[in-house]
Design goal:
Elements: H1 12-27, E1 40-45, H2 51-62, E2 66-70, H3 84-91, E3 97-102, H4 107-114, E4 119-124, H5 130-144, E5 150-155, H6 162-171, E6 177-182, H7 191-199, E7 205-208, H8 211-214, E8 220-223, H9 234-240, E9 259-261, H10 282-303
Parallel strand pairs: 1-2, 1-3, 3-4, 5-6, 5-8, 6-7, 8-9
The structure holds phosphoric acid mono(formamide)ester.
Length: 307
């Protein structure tokens, strides 16, 4: 039973296939409107979410299927002490596929090992968020037309930002990618990501605290929120939360075809004054997330023989 825990669970060819399916869904939505008639997606969200949960649900409805689930741990039997393994076995009796978000790293892996239906990791702690990366990739593809020859700036909380870790993993498999890692000292990219992905694959990268100095060389700027929920003390969060605020003034030396991405939710990282700039892609990213989740549900249900 194929589940998706990490973006590296896909080959580059599979990512290409998912993107091709998503583009076909965009062009021909009627063709896909009943493929999942009678099938059920369970959304098990032990942590808050707007985009991921609702886009999974919208995706399943637009494929003709139905949705069941919960949106907070306290409304499930996890509040009574039920394990992830037992939850996964139980939900396998009711649904055809699971999308699960959990605050603990590795939770989706445990669920996948116990479920008898495909499990999709919708975010596990500070570890991975592969379906956000699918949204990011479709956005890059639609905006830039390529995954090669790009200088990608990643800015903000690179330590706890699981979307950043997944995106680095995904883009590192393409050629001539350079990363500019822009963060406060305390929120630098974890050394295991640098060692196991960037250095192992000879991917050029630089680390800086200076967003404006980095700006002119960037093709993509991926802003991120400082992840309050992963901090051990509030004082550190308050000190670091506004480290980077993208304003129109800071874009004055940016490329005219820069693409500005953000997985959202944003707090203060991008001024609303940028929302109408043609380079702002973050709400397109939200919509692209739904199309990629539709493509993913189709792929996993087909592989499982459910449709
Ligand atoms: N990008 C993202 O995961 O958003 P939500 O937390 O709202 O799902």
């Amino acid at each position: 039973m194929k589940s998706i825990i990490d973006i590296l669970d896909f080959t580059v060819e599979e990512l290409d296939e998912l993107i091709a399916t998503a583009l076909d869904i965009i062009d021909n939505p009627n063709k896909y409107a009943h493929i999942c008639d009678g099938k059920k997606l369970a959304t098990l969200f032990f942590e808050p979410s707007t985009r991921t949960r609702l886009s999974f649900e919208a995706a399943m409805y637009e494929l003709g299927g139905n949705v069941l689930g919960f949106s907070e741990a306290n409304s499930s039997s996890a509040a009574k002490g039920e394990s992830i393994a037992d939850t996964a076995k139980t939900v396998s009796c009711y649904a055809d596929i699971i999308a699960m978000r959990h605050p603990k790293e590795g939770a989706a892996f445990v669920a996948a090992n116990n479920a008898s239906i495909p499990v999709i990791n919708a975010g596990d702690g500070g570890h991975c968020h592969p379906t956000q990366t699918l949204a990011d990739l479709l956005t890059i593809r639609r905006e830039k037309g390529r995954f090669n020859n790009l200088t990608v700036g990643l800015c903000g909380d690179l330590k706890f930002g699981r979307t950043v870790h997944s995106l680095i993993n995904a883009l590192s498999r393409y050629s001539n990618i350079k990363f500019v890692l822009i963060s406060p000292e305390e929120l630098k990219l974890p050394s295991y990501v640098k060692k196991d992905i960037l250095q192992k694959n000879n991917i050029p990268y630089e680390q800086t605290t200076d967003l404006e100095a980095a700006m002119p060389k960037l093709d993509i700027l991926y802003m991120t929120r400082v992840q309050r929920e992963r901090f051990f003390n509030e004082e550190d969060y308050l000190r670091l939360k506004d480290s980077y605020i993208l304003t129109p003034d800071k874009l004055k030396n940016a490329k005219s075809d820069l693409s500005i991405l953000h997985p959202l939710p944003r707090v203060n990282e991008i001024s609303v004054a940028i929302d109408n700039d043609p380079r702002a892609c973050y709400f397109k990213q939200v919509l692209n997330g739904k199309y990629m989740r539709m493509a993913l549900i189709l792929k996993l249900l087909k592989e499982a023989g459910t449709i």
